[in-house]
Amino acid sequence: MKNLKSVTYIKEGIGMFGLKVRLYLLIALMFGIVYAITVILIPGRTFAFYALLATFFLFLQYFLSPAMVEIAMRVRYVSEEEYPDLHRMVEELARKAGIPKPRVGVSDLPIPNAFAFGRSIKDGRVVVTEEIMRLLTKEELKAVLGHEISHLKHRDVVVITMLSLVPMICWYIAWSFMWGFGDERERGYGVIIGMIAFFLYFITNLLVLYASRIREYYADYGSVELGNPPHHLASALYKLVYGTASIPKEYLRPMEGFKAFFLNDPSKAYREVYDLKQIDLDMSGSIEREELLWLKNKEIKLSFTDKLMELLSTHPNMLERIKFLSKLA
């Protein structure tokens, strides 16, 4: 039994290490692209100007984003007297994660979900909607909160913000060179540089989306690491998909720009319902440990459309994500 536990811990360690390595390699690649652009364009002053402009807008976004999120998500910070159980769970998970207790908020958005944001660990905020508290059991809600606490612990909000700088720089360079002034020869050279920059903008944007998907896996792993059984988080994700799929699209459209903050992508929920039907074997409306173990040994195949949608999404395919959790069960 002791040896089996040791093997499990080694496998889990490799899984976490693999996620970290992928994220660090991605960061190195992104800023390698910035370095390459610098080497190519440094003789002119255009790159420096637009890099500074992009950096300015990035830091403006970084400092203003908490206020923007609070307004857009209708966040109301709540006291321990109002929501004692919620505060107790957040405090316990933050202590296990070794970070300061984040501010606790509630949102009246008409969807079941949760999110974390803030400029740093000390500025962390965790918010749940009224709908998710009605939908989930306490164990499932705690697993969700573990996921959000892990986002803060990993500082991945800051990482994504910094990575977003690279596509912004590529976009500004492309726009500058494509529509820059000069003689016919210079304009032809500028169009070529602009087209390359547009291509790099597209590629780096995909890489930022990939980083966003990695951080979701990373936070799922973090929730399990904080002591939440994988099937509780899997069940919570399953319920969120079903709870969101029936919501009219007009309610979801205003939240499109902020869906990267959510636990799942609300706009994909309707399609994901069909994929997840095969997991709930007893049709109980939740995922038990036995069902997650069953999925662990089952091969899943995604259609070309599913793979394409995932490529362009901030969140992993939900079936793949729950499959990942099954490996931790």
Verbal overview:
A hairpin with a 7-residue loop joins strand 3 and strand 4 (125-129). The protein has helices at 2-41, 46-72, 84-97, 130-135, 138-154, 156-163, 165-178, 184-225, 230-245, 249-252, 269-276, 289-296, 304-311, 318-326; strands at 75-77, 103-107, 114-117, 125-129. Strands 1-2-4-3 form a four-stranded mixed sheet, sandwiched between helices. It has 329 residues and is mostly helical. The protein has one domain (16-326).
Main attributes?
329 residues, mainly alpha, four-stranded mixed sheet, 14 helices, 4 strands, 67% helix, globular
Radius of gyration: 22 Å
Instruction: Give, in order, the helices and strands.
Output: HHEHEEEHHHHHHHHHHH
In spatial order, strands of the major sheet run 1-2-4-3
What's the end-to-end separation, in Å?
Answer: 16 Å
Poorly predicted runs of 5 or more residues? 1-14
Overall SS class: mainly alpha
Oligomeric state of this protein: single chain
Q: Percent of residues in beta strands?
A: 5-15%
Classify the helix fraction into a percent range: 55-70%
Number of helices: 14
Shape: globular
Describe the main β-sheet briefly: 4 strands, mixed
Total separate domains: 1
**Average pLDDT across residues?**
82
How many E strands?
A: 4
